[in-house]
Specification:
The complex is a heterodimer of chains A (384) and B (418).
Chain A: H1 2-5, H2 9-13, E1 26-30, E2 42-48, E3 51-58, H3 66-70, H4 75-83, H5 90-105, H6 111-140, H7 144-164, E4 173-174, E5 177-178, H8 186-208, H9 212-218, H10 226-232, H11 237-241, H12 248-251, H13 272-295, E6 315-323, E7 326-334, E8 340-346, H14 348-353, H15 355-360, H16 365-375, H17 379-383
Antiparallel strand pairs in A: 1-2, 2-3, 4-5, 6-7, 7-8
Helix pairs in contact in A: 4-5, 5-6, 6-7, 6-13, 6-16, 7-8, 8-13
Chain B: H1 2-9, H2 23-55, H3 71-81, H4 92-108, H5 127-149, H6 152-183, H7 195-204, H8 216-231, H9 243-246, H10 256-281, H11 296-303, H12 305-323, H13 331-352, H14 354-383, H15 389-417
Helix pairs in contact in B: 2-10, 2-14, 3-10, 4-5, 4-10, 5-6, 6-7, 6-8, 6-15, 8-10, 8-15, 10-14, 12-13
Classes of the chains: A alpha+beta (384), B mainly alpha (418).
């Protein structure tokens, strides 16, 4: 298999691994068309029987050159493109981009816009986590939670649809605030959703949290320490499950997050089960934030005073937010024209994916699938 | 030829159908079982998709025929019309042979399965041994399928399933032996390996073996029930075909008709092991409470069950007919569904007739018990995540094997003491 081994640069350079009975290592391709790689991730596995000796991720099958496109679009025109990166958390992507440009222009979104942003972003976090839970459980073999989570995620998408007309790639926010005022009954819809979804999260937990097979499949699987997380730049629930209390919503509050009371759930072991628990807790915390926000959306304008043609002064800015998957950063360089000189995205999925090799080395083939699921990657964001 | 057939049907000759070496009745039953199994697999296909769908808040097949009733037929036609792909790297002969082995073993087990005291192809005196031996042969087909495909994923799937089937066979065997031991608790003190003999032993001892030496029979049954799920490669032990890991496991390279053979074999193997569990622990063809609720009245009540079941199914169908959309687009479907309901109702009515209901009793109770197991299989699939390979081995060797061994010893001791 000369083609597959071509990529295995670092695997081949190392000393040959000791295999059981000195048999041949098996090199197999997992992906890019594989049911459990969440899109088009290709993982080359070096196996000793069922044991994983090493992995190599080959990415780029979904590369669309989003960052390059930005250089040929105005700031406003580029806004919808970011929705296509992490398409299950499009609202978070839009928020990060809009805030970065606002920061670059020294504009601040009005408080009402910030509240709407927080509510929609947290709803989107719920939707993203629900999708993660469904697919992660499906990878481990529990097919039913997928349909439950999709049923409940539908309610969130309905709110998005009512708010801005789109369900997935919402393009909900604009530079300087929000374009749309909340529709009549928005608050009632959100409150009704909160009441509806809280018992549903219990339902998911009932299916999985104490399920013996689930616990055995996830405990001590894909273990990663806090130090390794920091060294690799891993953020988000993966980092928090390793015991680091790091959440950008608390550390560098953006939008209106300063005004809400919520906890940062952390794990202790840094294994797949802890990451599962952390994300389940995060869903409840999101509900808490929405609950606080929806009652007291301030009156006022939803759009700051932004010029029709956005032309930031020469300069550069890095702004990051806590996306559902981790730290989502935008580094924007402006040359004073209407188009950004360079936009660099720091996608959480891409950085977190680096930890895959370390997490699955020495474990079994079935764990690779579990770990890919627990990293919660979206290939649209990895490849951009 | 006609004389030969007549010799079996005449009143003067009393050869019971289940008897060994009875070629005529054996042939009749082989054809009946073959047809019945095929229908059962088709029905299972539809039922599994429907039941699983309703567990998962979806509707399942709804387009082909009313409530998707014709979906299995459509699937079968699709599979038969598909191009027969033989991978260029595959070993053609073995690739061709593997599905045949699997199907052959899955069907052969039914030779010893007793649907009633006289309803079996043959009453082999080593029935249980035959069943264990033949069903373990199916692993050959799986391994050859994986090897002949000459591809990595099928190979890993085949290795997994061979390890899995071999390990769970032992626990299964131990559980079976304790049932055989229980059958030896009679005046002569000799047990039996004959499947019909095992049910007759349960009849004679006036208890199903699942309740024998409570909870020993129950534990042995539990060991068997777990092992049989692993043996048939079904969730939560479906690692050989774990779709999220190995795409489709050992039959990744198979398509069309060959793949449908694997499918057929999987479902008939499920039915086979369920019938064995029913025979060994749940009293085979015996109706519930054959000794507690005796007398003419109870006999009559229980003999009405087959008819009631079909009438109930017909009632569900007619309820669905009433709920069909009234749009003319659905007229054909509504008529079809009503026709299906009418057929069910007619069968139900026929089953109320005394000569029929008395003869169908044994088979009915057997099938109902097996159907219960089939529902369990679907329920498992909707509920459990999948075990990992090493955990599966751990459960097999470190949990089920000691339990099975312990139950066997305790059964032997209880047999001596009581």
């Amino acid at each position: 298999m000369p083609d597959a081994t071509k990529f295995l640069s670092h695997l081949e350079l190392g000393e040959t691994d000791q295999t059981f009975l000195d048999s041949n290592e098996l090199i197999i391709n997992m992906g890019p068309q594989h049911p459990a790689t969440h899109g088009v991730l290709r993982v080359i596995l070096k196996l000793d029987g069922e044991k994983v000796l090493g992995t190599e991720c080959v990415i780029g099958y979904l590369h669309r050159g989003v960052e390059k496109i930005a250089e040929h679009r105005t700031y406003t025109m580029f806004n919808p493109y970011v929705d296509r990166m992490d398409y299950v958390a499009a609202v978070s992507n839009g928020l990060g981009y809009c805030e970065a440009v606002e920061k670059l222009m020294n504009v601040e979104a009005p408080p009402r816009a910030n509240y709407i942003r927080v509510i929609l972003t947290e709803l989107n976090r719920l939707a993203s986590h629900m999708l993660w839970l469904g697919t992660h459980a499906l990878d481990i073999g529990a097919i039913t939670p997928l349909f439950y989570t999709f049923r409940d995620r539908e309610e969130i998408l309905k709110i998005f649809e009512k708010y801005c007309g789109a369900r997935l790639t919402t393009h909900a926010f604009r530079i300087g605030g929000c374009l749309y005022e909340t529709y009549d009954g928005f608050e009632q819809d959100v409150t009704r959703f909160l009441k509806f979804v809280a018992p549903k999260i219990d339902e998911y937990e009932e299916l999985l949290t104490t399920n013996r097979i689930w616990v055995e499949r996830t405990k001590k699987v894909g273990y990663i320490t806090a130090d390794d997380c920091k060294a690799l730049g891993v953020t988000g629930p993966v980092l928090r499950a390793s015991g680091v209390q790091w959440d950008l919503r608390k550390a560098q509050p953006y939008a209106a997050y300063k005004e809400f009371d919520f906890d940062i759930p952390t794990g202790t072991n840094g294994d797949t089960y802890d990451r599962y628990l952390v994300r389940m807790q995060e869903m409840r915390q999101s509900l808490r934030i929405i609950d606080q926000a929806v009652g007291k959306i301030p009156e006022g304008p939803i759009m700051a005073k932004v010029p029709k043609v956005i032309k930031p002064a020469v300069g550069e800015i890095y702004h990051s937010i806590e996306a559902p998957k981790g730290e989502l950063g935008y580094f924007i360089v402006s040359d004073g024209s209407t188009q950004p000189y360079r936009v660099r995205v720091r996608p959480p999925s891409f950085v977190n994916l680096q930890a895959l090799d370390q997490m699955v080395r020495g474990q079994l083939v079935a764990d690779v699938v579990a770990v890919i699921g627990t990293l919660d990657i979206v290939l649209g964001e990895v490849d951009r | 030829m006609l004389d030969y057939i007549n010799s079996y049907l005449s009143d003067t000759v009393h050869v019971t159908p289940g008897e060994a070496g009875n070629f005529f009745w054996a042939l009749v039953y082989i054809i009946a079982i073959f047809a019945g199994l095929s229908v059962a697999v088709i029905a299972m296909n539809w039922l599994e998709r429907k039941i699983l769908a309703h567990m998962q808040i979806r509707l399942g097949p709804m387009r082909v025929g009313p409530h998707g009733l014709l979906q299995p037929v459509a699937d079968a036609i699709k599979l038969l019309l598909k191009e027969d792909i033989l991978p260029s790297e595959a070993d053609p002969l073995v690739f061709w042979l593997a599905p045949l082995i699997v199907v052959w073993t899955a069907f052969t087990v039914f030779i010893v399965v007793p649907f009633g005291p006289t309803h079996a192809v043959t009453d082999m005196n080593i029935g249980v041994l035959f069943m264990l031996g033949v069903s373990s042969l199916s692993v050959l087909g799986v391994v050859t399928a994986g090897w002949a495909s000459n591809s990595h994923y099928p190979l890993i799937g085949a290795l997994r399933s061979s390890a899995q089937m071999v390990s769970y066979e032992i626990a299964m065997g131990l559980a079976v032996i304790s049932a055989v031991l229980m059958s030896s608790l009679n005046a002569e003190g000799t047990g039996t390996l004959s499947m019909i003999g095992l049910v007759q032993a349960q009849e004679a001892q006036q208890t199903w073996f699942i309740f024998k030496f409570f909870p020993l029979g129950l534990i042995a049954f539990f060991v068997f029930a777990v092992a049989m799920v692993a043996e048939t490669n079904r969730a939560p032990f479906d690692l050989p075909e774990a779709e999220s890991e190995l795409t489709a496991g050992f039959h990744t390279e198979y398509s069309g008709f060959r793949w449908s053979l694997f499918f057929l074999a999987e479902y008939s193997a499920m039915i086979a092991v369920s019938s064995i569990a029913v025979t060994l622990w749940l009293g085979g063809w015996l109706r519930p409470f054959p000794h507690a609720l005796t007398g003419e009245t109870w006999d009559l009540v229980f003999s009405l069950f087959p008819g009631i079941t079909f009438m109930f199914l017909a009632a569900i169908t007619f309820y669905s007919v009433a709920r069909m959309p009234k749009h003319p687009y659905f007229r054909v479907q509504t008529i079809g569904l009503a026709g299906f309901g009418a057929v069910l109702a007619l069968i139900g009515l026929a089953l109320f007739a005394p000569p029929v209901r008395d003869r169908i009793q044994d088979v009915y109770w057997f099938v109902v018990k097996v159907a219960g197991f089939m529902y369990l299989y679907i329920w498992y699939r909707g509920t459990f995540p999948r075990y990992r390979f090493d955990q599966l081995m751990k459960v097999g060797w470190k949990v089920l094997l000691p339990i099975g061994l312990g139950v066997l010893i305790l059964t032997a001791v209880s047999g001596i003491v009581f």
